[in-house]
Amino acid sequence: MLSVQRKTLVDGVRHASLAFDPVTTSQHEISDEIAKIHADAPAGAPLLDFPPYRSTLLRHPTKELQLVDPEGAELLAPVFGHSDVAPVEADLTVQRGGEPIGERIRVHGRVLDGDGRPVRRQLVEIWQANAAGRYSHQGDQHPAPLDPNFTGVGRCLTDDDGWYSFTSIKPGPYPWRNHHNAWRPAHIHFSLFGTDFTQRLITQMYFPGDQLLALDPIAQSITDPAARSRLIASYDHSRSEHEWLLGYRWDIVLTGSHATYLEPSDD
Amino acid sequence: MTEATPGQTVGPFFHHALAYPGDSELVPFGAAGSVVLHGHVYDGAGDPVPDAMIEIRQADASGVVPAVGGSLRRRGSAFTGWGRCCTDAAGHYWFSTVEPGLPFFAVTVFARGLLDRLFTRIYLPDATDAVDGLVATRETDGRLRFDIHLQGPSETVFFTFPRT
Ligand SMILES: [Fe+2]
Question: Which domains are delineated in chain B?
Answer without folding.
Answer: 14-149 (2.60.130.10)
